[in-house]
Amino acid sequence: MTDKGEPTLRTVPRPGDINANGHIFGGWVLSQMDIAGGIVAGRVAQGPVATVAIESMQFLAPILLMDIISVYAKLERRGRTSMAIRIAVIASRDRGQEEVEVTSGVFTFVALDENHRPRPLPPE
């Protein structure tokens, strides 16, 4: 993501999020990405959304226990009821001395009505 802007979500992994290799579980970071993507998608939809697909996902570098994680999410494209949100995760290491892009992906969300069925997105 070249134009990161402000992070949608910022968090710190906990010792329970670590695997046998000393890195953070991929599922943990995936859930953080889904939360951040849902925040952006909910704003676009002006209401509830659901994740329906992960179009692409790349793990570029491990997340370490002392990393501060910033999750950046932005609208990439929109359809009638769904939207693609591009998400990038940056790890801040060594007390902010180093920033490493650790993962990125594109998540698809659909806007939901009161019956949890797809509904049209509001006009742009």
Description:
By secondary structure, the protein is of the alpha+beta class. It has one domain: Hotdog Thioesterase (Thiol Ester Dehydrase, Chain A, Roll). 16% of the residues lie in helices and 41% in strands. It is built from 1 helix and 5 strands; from the N terminus they run βαββββ. The two termini are 23 Å apart. One of its GO terms (molecular function) is long-chain fatty acyl-CoA hydrolase activity. Residues 3-115 form the HotDog ACOT-type domain. This is Acyl-CoA thioesterase.
Give the SSE map:
Elements: E1 9-11, H1 26-45, E2 49-59, E3 68-78, E4 82-93, E5 98-111
Antiparallel strand pairs: 1-3, 2-5, 3-4, 4-5
Descriptors:
124 residues, elongated, 5-stranded antiparallel sheet, 16% helix, Thiol Ester Dehydrase, Chain A, alpha+beta, 5 strands
